[in-house]
């Protein structure tokens, strides 16, 4: 004889395969995303001034790192290569980006090269004070 009951068995077991798949995808997303994050090329602490001007389009920016290395367009170049680039491009304005703690002699060396190349307008980059 069969008895009727209102009792139903529920299985509340979570299938682990989809959970593991989602976790693997999240790990891959964050690992690959971290690989493509931009890294700053040269870290500088520019000096602060009350007012900064906007620069014109026909300008060339050079960066001098704390160890004296010269960078043009994000690439390290030698002094001779920089002098050649100044003569070839002949910008109307040379913008010098140098850290506040850089020795004065290294900045004046760049200014001298620019003057020898015939560049008359030279600016030193700075951050605006707040």
Characterize this entry briefly:
With 130 residues, the protein is an alpha/beta fold. It is 34% helix and 20% strand. It is rod-shaped.
The fraction of residues assigned to DSSP E strands is 15-25%
pLDDT averaged residue by residue: 79
Number of helices: 3
Beta strands, count: 7
Structure classification: alpha/beta
Q: Which outline best applies?
A: rod-shaped
Element-by-element helix/strand order: HEEEEHEHEE
The CATH architecture of the domain at 48-128 can be named as 2-Layer Sandwich
Plain-language structure description:
The protein has a domain at 48-128: Nucleotidyltransferase, domain 5 (2-Layer Sandwich). It has a five-stranded mixed β-sheet with strand order 4-3-2-5-6. Strands 1-7 form a two-stranded parallel ribbon. The protein is built from three helices and seven strands, in the order H-E-E-E-E-H-E-H-E-E. It has helices at 16-35, 79-89, 104-116, and strands at residues 48-49, 59-64, 70-72, 75-77, 93-98, 121-124, 127-128. With 130 residues, it is of the alpha/beta class. The model has no long low-confidence stretch (mean pLDDT 79). The N and C termini lie far apart (89 Å). A hairpin with a 2-residue loop joins strand 3 (70-72) and strand 4.
Key descriptive features of the protein:
single chain, 130 residues, alpha/beta, Nucleotidyltransferase, domain 5, rod-shaped
Layout of secondary structure:
Blueprint: H1 16-35, E1 48-49, E2 59-64, E3 70-72, E4 75-77, H2 79-89, E5 93-98, H3 104-116, E6 121-124, E7 127-128
């Amino acid at each position: 004889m069969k008895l009727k009951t209102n009792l139903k068995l529920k299985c509340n077991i979570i299938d682990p395969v989809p959970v593991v798949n989602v976790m693997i995808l999240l790990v891959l997303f964050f690992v690959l995303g971290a690989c493509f994050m931009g890294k700053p090329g040269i870290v500088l602490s520019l000096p602060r001034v009350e007012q900064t001007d906007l620069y014109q389009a026909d300008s060339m920016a050079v960066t001098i790192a704390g160890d004296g290395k010269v960078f043009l367009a994000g690439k390290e170049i030698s002094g001779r290569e920089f002098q050649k680039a100044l003569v070839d491009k002949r910008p109307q304005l040379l913008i010098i980006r140098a850290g506040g703690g850089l020795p004065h002699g290294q900045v004046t060396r760049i200014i001298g090269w620019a003057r020898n190349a015939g560049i008359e307008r030279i600016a030193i980059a700075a951050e605006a004070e707040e």
